[in-house]
Specification:
Layout lengths: L2 H15 L3 E6 L2 E5 L1 H6 L4 H4 L10 H6 L1 H9 L6 E6 L5 E13 L2 E10 L1 H23 L3 E5 L5 E4 L1 H7 L3 H4 L17 H10 L4 E9 L5 E10 L10 E7 L1 H45 L4 H32 L5 E4 H15 L4 E6 L7 E4 L3 H15 L4 E10 L5 E8 L29 H12 L2 E8 L2 E13 L10 E5 L6 H14 L7 E5 L17 E4 L2 E4 L4 H14 L3
Parallel strand pairs: 12-14, 18-19
Antiparallel strand pairs: 1-2, 1-5, 3-4, 4-5, 6-7, 6-10, 8-9, 9-10, 11-13, 14-15, 15-17, 16-17, 18-20, 20-21
Helix pairs in contact: 10-11, 11-14, 12-13, 13-14, 15-16
Amino acid sequence: MSDATHDTQWIQKIMDVVHDGLIVLQDEDIVMANKVFSDMLDYPIKDVIDIALEDIVDPLSRKRDSDLLEKLLSGEATSQFSTRFISKNGQTVHVEIKPTTVSFDGVPAVLACVRNVSTQIALETAVTEAENRFATLYDMSPVAYFTLSRDGEIEQVNEAAEELLGCDAEEIIGKPISNFLPEPKPGYDPAAEIVREVLRGKSVKGLEMEMFCGKEKTLWISASSRALTSGPEQPVSIGFTAVDITNRRTMEQKLRAESERANLYMEVMTSELNMTNMNALFALEDLNISLDLPERLKGLLSETAWSLRSAARMIANMGVLMSLHHEPPVKTKTKILPHFNKAIREATRDFEWKTIEVKSNLSDLTFEVNGHAFMWYIFFNIIHYSARSDTDDIVNIEINAEMTEADDMLRIEFLDRSPGIPDDQKSQIFRRNGSADDRLEGKGLGLTVVDRYISDLGGRIWVEDRTTGDSSQGSKFVILLPTWKEILQIPPIVYYKSEHCIFCGPVLASLETVLNEFGIGTTAIQIVNVDDPDSKIAEEDLPALPTIQMRKDQLSGFLSEDDLRAAISKMILMSGG
């Protein structure tokens, strides 16, 4: 066998086992190719033999890569280069060509390895487009974005961050984020605490804090932060976002101040009006008793006394609505009957010229609900409304109470024989809002107080017709009150905090919110201030601040409400709840 034949057979064997396309070029034509190459261009293998290489090169690439192609065909090219071929069906195929010189049938030739890189090019293009799209969204976002190093140094910012801080990117990048946050104090370094939390694998969300922008100007932001790159290794960089909430905080502060001022004025006014009403009532009663007045004047005194009493009730109801908003009464196990009896006594005192006859099954039954010391006021306002609406001198009210089928609510019905409440007013009567279209003038605030009290207890109230479909036959007020259930006994939740901890305040507020959601209440929290020498524990003894001890479980650092719900749910289950 000659050397030329041996070389040709060797080339053929190589072509049969490799996974890339292989071709042999001689005199500018393809004189040998493997199936991988022909499949790449959708040609039968016999159709690519003796075809000129330039005939399968994309026309634009033929012009752009003319020098490289010429060196390839002449055998001068020895380095790898990229170009584009055209398949039989006209599709563009991106290829990488790596040539070498060989002997084919005893004549010099070029052996070229042709690799299809179309998929790689498509992926690279898609990645580039995604990066460009992300970069556009990043710069267009109204949220200020900062990319931080593990040391808290700013590496990248978007346009919103430049606008927020009032600086160009060149003035921001390379500086520590701490330069734009409140100055660190002993034991208090907001930037360091945020970075430390993220490096511990935690995320910080919605943390409200001050930030500096421009010279000696501060604003309030809602900050969030998390690791941008995570995996088996520690985060490489940290994302930090800031939303300007200065206007919201300013408005909240103004509203708080206005609310406190309005409450003060209301408290002073109600106190003075109550005192004036009481003095006037005493004077009227004294006149009625002391003087022998004509019946006309006695009637006038009675009407005036009633008006003053109604005004006093209105003022009292306003005070109740205010206190309910700020300091709802503490809920406890409450027996219904004593409150029911007090409500009847107080209502009877207001309507001296009427006879209030109440038929009820409450005296025969013992009910205990989730209530408070002002339960009588709920019943009083309903009875008072019925007595006031009834035009007869004898007011008949029927009160029936029974447990619901699930035994978790007490249903109480108040049936009267008043003129009733039209359908279009049945929902409005509990929610007086003082609007121009409020058609309930003269009805007072009693039922609004009832609705607020019952809602605060977790119950409901509504009104129906006493006789279905005929509101003129009287009203039926229906209330549902949750029955008393023993509060789940759980071990104390120990909350370790410091006055210098940036997370301690927000996390404590979230913990209180979640405990109230579960009906446990904030009395379960035992707060330990590590700044106090008498606490007998140092900050160094804890993993981070705040630290929350729940039975054997310990949570630390920034915690979201979802984190706390999960931990409290687990604690309740472990406590047998």
